[in-house]
Amino acid sequence: MLEGPDTTTLDTLAAADAVLVSRDFVERLQGEVKFKQARIEALNFEIARLKRWRFGSSSESLEASTQAVLFDQILADTALEDRAAQDQSKPPPAQPRTKGQAVRQALPASLPRIDHHHEIEETHCACGQPFKRIGQEVSEQLDCVPAQFFVLRHIRGKYACACCQTIQAAPMPAQIIDKGIPAPGLLAQVVIVKHDDHLPLYRQEEIYARSGVHIPRSSMAQWVGICGVRLKPLADALQAFILSHSVIHADETPVSLLAPGRGKTKRAFVWVYRTTDFVAQRAVLYDFAATRAGEHPRRVLHGFGGTLVTDDYSGYHALHAQGGVTASLCMAHARRKLFEAHELNGSQIAGQAVALIAQLYEVEREARDLEPEARRRLRQQRSRPVADALHAWLTAQRQTLANADATAKAIDYSTSNWRALTRYLDDGNVPIDNNAAENAIRPLAMACS
């Protein structure tokens, strides 16, 4: 007669199954908690970044104490001790100037001087003796005269021939606007104030009215358009000059474009192309476009076959794919993502990466005034080991982070673009970042914000 399983054995198996089920349930809950925690941290990071963009400081520098701690974790202690010993041997620094305290600059010597003489009314002292002039005290003030309008009169002599019964007059000098009222100086004023000082035409209309001259904004708008056509050959020459260089910066920024008849504005873009700060003759070209499509940089950079320094916007990828254009990405963009992860999430991993990038920029400050080949050698000697250590550090730390983590995303941006981010190490003509283009376009971005 067969006997059934022992009751104790059944209880043991049931308990084991219950433990396995509970363990699976706990692991699943832990996974969900970990995922949700990463998601919460990512959302908190986005909120903190938006608040910083809206209300915070634009500075991306680490505090001195924080940076020292981060360097301690990466660099050898001996190097820091040597630096401390050097600091102790130096005389104490002068007291820093109080923050916000203005420093009066000398007035430019090139400005014309208008003298106002002031003399005392008394000619004799109280004791009865006459005063004797022994010198003078000179103080200077800066003054200005508001924009002054004047009328240019072109007086052309007319001559007649009694024999031929003909009349001749001196030809009128060539004008930007034929038979137009504005002279070249006024046209330059309107165009420069609008596009360089970012002062709208309606405000210019108000300013000129205070000087007693009424210039409708519609007339100024027509003048600006005509000047654009007249200046097209100059813009073409500027474009050709920039394209003749082996390294070019490029960037873009959104601007508001009026939509006639709708009472609204729509989003357009201005692209900037410029030479690097390493060349003697620098030039900047601005190109307006209705969209952010990649066709616009392809149109402007047609025929260019050098290195293009940009951010990682996909609109430039077609230029890289077509051959002839080498991509060099902006190290400042990679640093900014890591800095935000450190500043907003308190990531020590990102902070240590930022500290290493600071060493790369320290080398660039020393290499700024060197010739290209000397700059390349200095980069290979001092920057290449730091860049290799940074890449190894980022790769190793990435394995410990969840995909949704802000630090992980910042690391992924750097490692996936590492070849283009370090392109500058092999070419002394290539800058480390795209800050030159960003600085050239920043005034326009701020005026349109």
Topology (SSEs and partners):
Blueprint: H1 7-55, H2 64-74, H3 77-89, E1 158-161, E2 166-169, H4 184-195, H5 201-210, H6 217-230, H7 232-243, E3 247-259, E4 264-274, E5 284-289, H8 295-300, E6 307-310, H9 317-321, E7 326-329, H10 331-345, H11 348-367, H12 372-398, H13 406-416, H14 418-421, H15 435-447
Parallel strand pairs: 3-6, 6-7
Antiparallel strand pairs: 1-2, 3-4, 4-5
Low-confidence stretches: 64-82
Mean pLDDT: 84
Largest beta sheet: strand ordering:
5-4-3-6-7
Would you count the extended β strands for me? Answer: 7
Beta-strand share of residues: 5-15%
Q: In DSSP terms, counting alpha (H) and pi (I) runs of 4 or more, how many helices?
A: 15
Q: How do the SSEs run, as a string of H and E?
A: HHHEEHHHHEEEHEHEHHHHHH
The span between the termini is 92 Å
Radius of gyration: 34 Å
Shape: elongated
> Can you summarize the main beta sheet?
5 strands, mixed
Helix content: 40-55%
Structural class: alpha/beta
Structure description:
The protein has 449 residues and is an alpha/beta fold. Among the domains are: 177-230; 233-306, no CATH class; 331-433, no CATH class. β6 (307-310), α9 (317-321) and β7 (326-329) form a beta-alpha-beta unit. The termini are far apart. The chain has helices at residues 7-55, 64-74, 77-89, 184-195, 201-210, 217-230, 232-243, 295-300, 317-321, 331-345, 348-367, 372-398, 406-416, 418-421, 435-447; strands spanning 158-161, 166-169, 247-259, 264-274, 284-289, 307-310, 326-329. The radius of gyration is 34 Å and the shape is elongated. α1 (7-55) crosses α10, α10 runs antiparallel to α11 (348-367) and α11 packs antiparallel against α12. The model is unreliable at 64-82 (pLDDT under 50). The strands form two sheets. A five-stranded mixed β-sheet has the order 5-4-3-6-7. Strands 1-2 form a two-stranded antiparallel ribbon. Residues 179-446 form the Transposase IS66 central domain. Residues 122-164 form the Transposase IS66 zinc-finger binding domain. InterPro entries: Transposase-related, Transposase_IS66_central, Transposase_TnpC_homeodom, Znf_dom_IS66. Residues 43-115 form the Transposase TnpC homeodomain domain. Residues 82-103 are annotated as: Disordered.
